[in-house]
Design goal:
By secondary structure, this protein is an alpha/beta fold. The protein has nine helices and nine strands. Helices cover about 35% and strands about 10% of the residues. The strands form two sheets. The protein has a seven-stranded parallel sheet. It has a two-stranded antiparallel ribbon with strand order 8-9.
Length: about 240
């Protein structure tokens, strides 16, 4: 998936940006929105790309008073809406799920298996994002994945601007069976001039990443590159 991580200053910037990522092989587009910059960007994107493969990320920019506006976005048949309300405003997330047919995806407010279970019981989300760094590692991520799988909630793997080592773990996590939606795991060159692993992560023309089969994390850390980038060392006795 390709993320349009900042809101474009001009709508004219949006079509070329989307076309560029489609040409690079990405199969799903995320559009950042906020009040006043929501309907028009989605409408413009829907003209050049199947809206069912688009979704919007509100970054907690809306309140319950804005649900009539968000309801208008449903006319574009988006894949999902992520984090529409404030992260700690669980009541609004619950009500949003009631008012909107578009699936609500929860992300930063899910840190544990218990959080995921509570939000499922409240009917607050139909899709869940799992980030290894956010939930604290593979054990909790696997528990959330398994909970969602039992209850028919599809999940996808989110990224936190990891270097290649962290990205290798995201790739491994994404091989679990309930990761049925394209995730945020992008090519190394998306963020780095040079990654700290070999081979670097690449995305195919079909928008896929090859899962390595070699031992360990599947990639070789470039120790000389890591040493060159190191600004401070501390040795613990």
């Amino acid at each position: 998936m390709r993320r349009l991580d900042r809101i474009k200053e001009s709508l004219d910037e949006l079509p070329p940006a989307v076309q560029k990522e489609l040409a690079a092989g990405y199969q799903r587009i995320k559009i950042k929105i906020k009040p006043g910059k929501d309907l028009d960007p989605v409408r413009r994107c829907a003209r050049i790309f199947r809206a069912s493969n688009c979704w919007v990320d509100a970054n907690s920019a809306y309140t319950l008073n804005d649900w009539p506006l968000l309801k208008q976005l449903e006319g574009f048949y988006l894949m999902m809406m992520r984090t529409a309300a404030r992260l700690d405003d669980l009541y609004s997330h619950d009500r949003a799920a009631e008012k909107l047919d578009t699936p609500i995806c929860l992300d930063e407010c899910i840190h544990t298996e218990e959080h995921a279970r509570d939000r499922h019981r409240a009917g607050a989300c139909k899709i869940m994002n799992i980030k290894l760094g956010r939930v604290g590692g593979h054990t909790v991520a696997r528990r959330i994945h398994d909970l969602c799988q039992r209850h028919g909630i599809p999940v996808w793997c989110g990224g936190m601007l990891e270097s290649g080592i962290g990205r290798a773990h995201n790739i491994a996590l994404s091989t679990l069976p309930n990761f049925t939606l394209a995730g945020d795991v992008a090519a190394s060159k998306r963020y780095w001039e040079e990654d700290i692993i070999l081979p670097e992560v690449t995305v195919s023309a079909q928008g896929t990443i090859r899962v390595p089969t070699s031992p360990g994390i599947g990639f070789e850390p470039r120790l000389e590159r890591i040493d060159k980038l190191t600004v401070r060392k501390e040795r613990l006795a």
